[in-house]
Amino acid sequence: MNEYARRTRAALPAVGVALAAGVAGVAGSYAVAGSTTGYVVAPVESALSQAMPGAVVTFAITTLGSLGQQVSLLTATLLVVGVVAALALGGLLVAGRTPPLVGALAAGVVVGAGAVLVTGAPLASLGAAVPVAVVLGAVDLYARYGRGGQQRPTGRTAGTSGVDPDRRGALAALAAAFAFGALGVTLGSRFGGVDGAGGGAAGPSEPAGSADTETLLAQASERSLDVEGLEPLVSDSFYNVDINAVDPTIDADTWTLTFTGNVAEEVSYDYDDLRAMDSSPEFVTLRCVGEGLNGKKMDNALWETVPVAPLLDEVGVGDENCCVMARAEDGFYEEFPLSALRNARIAYAMNSESLPRSHGAPARLLVPGHWGEINVKWLTELEILEEEATGYWEERGWHGTGPVNTVAKLHVTNHDDDGSIEVAGHAYAGTRGISKVEVSTDGGGSWSEARLSEELPGEDVWRQWAYRYDPPDGDHEVVVRAYDGEGTMQPEKREQSFPSGPSGWVTKTVSP
């Protein structure tokens, strides 16, 4: 074996120990911070997401879907593990030239300080530093005293890696990393609300709706079609799309919404101000501009809302303005016409409960009839503009600020015992409403009208549709199309989601 090969083989255990320390450090941060911005991976993932070229983002949305964000999070995690491992390897080098545990403590301090700079969360950063120091300290002591109780040499004669862990020491470090990882997942998932940056509960825990909320929710349940597998009119699980993999945690006691830009007076409202305003429960459906034509990123909820128009009058927004830039705590920003903002609402509750963190707690924007991207979550600022500007998604080539496209989705196919088939789904056209859904079971040759769920109160609400038929022999093509409240049929031509949202008739091959 030549000298290079010998040195490389001798260094492998040290690299293994460093990687184990990296994993342990990231796991320790998660154990303390959970899925909050104090988690050391969170700001790195956010920076990666915002630095991605528009073409990469578009590919992730249109091809990978929700998986794209998980890939981004995994990439950021591996990057952080690599950086912490490099610092740990430096600690091993220092350990070979210093008294016991000095290198381990030095590496822990450097990792902790770096984590504080990245996250601004001291407690979560301590969670990253301690496991690194523990793993390196244990290996340091083993390398010095682990064989027959005799202290091994240190200094430049100790080897190429300062302290020379053997394979047994490297395996012990990996076992420690596994233990820290398991502990991190367990504690992080259970106690993820701790955020060293000052986060806490995102809002009050008591029910947040008005007196009419329960009546409306009961009404939605009664009006939902009794079709097996069809999601009810109030969604069981509401979709989530965010620019970051880790949502911000905002304390309702410190939250404010500020009107800035071309206003007569810059005014801020806090959470108590918002809750004191006249509010009402309102059904509003949201649809993601980046979803597939027959995708499942379209849902409906009952929100407790405050109208924005009176606030615009209070702060003095004149007719000379054209647009608004809505900004969020997570760094997201989106521009859209001021006319849409005048019809917008601020929501602080969802389905009779305080707004969940994943849906923008303590308050979010709802803009009826528009794609989900301008319904900004974790809303903190509304900047009134005299001239058009470019929003986050528009900078990346999307054009989803306008009204939603009409769509009828086909999500359910039920085969009944009598041989008949029932197909069903949801139809949506924003504030235009839905007047009719038609179904073809012969690929578009003939059409029949589907039954619709009774309309829910509100100007921006989806409807369910269902159609039962006796199938022909063999496979056949089912096609579905919707008409909005003005009688306009949705376009037949299929368009991809990029750049302005999907459109076209939904088709599905059905077997009898």
UniProtKB/TrEMBL annotation:
Identify the residues that the record assigns to the Oxidoreductase molybdopterin-binding domain, covering every copy: 248-393
Q: Which domain of life is it from?
A: Archaea
What residue ranges are annotated as transmembrane?
Answer: 73-94, 101-118, 124-143
Keywords linked to the UniProt accession: Membrane, Transmembrane, Transmembrane helix
Q: Any idea where the Moybdenum cofactor oxidoreductase dimerisation domain is?
A: 412-493
Pfam families the UniProt entry points to = Mo-co_dimer, Oxidored_molyb
What PANTHER family does this protein map onto? SULFITE OXIDASE, MITOCHONDRIAL (PTHR19372:SF7), SULFITE REDUCTASE (PTHR19372)
Q: Where is this region: Disordered?
A: 486-512
Xref: InterPro entries:
Ig_E-set (IPR014756), MoCF_OxRdtse_dimer (IPR005066), OxRdtase_Mopterin-bd_dom (IPR000572), OxRdtase_Mopterin-bd_sf (IPR036374)
Name recorded for this polypeptide? Molybdopterin-dependent oxidoreductase
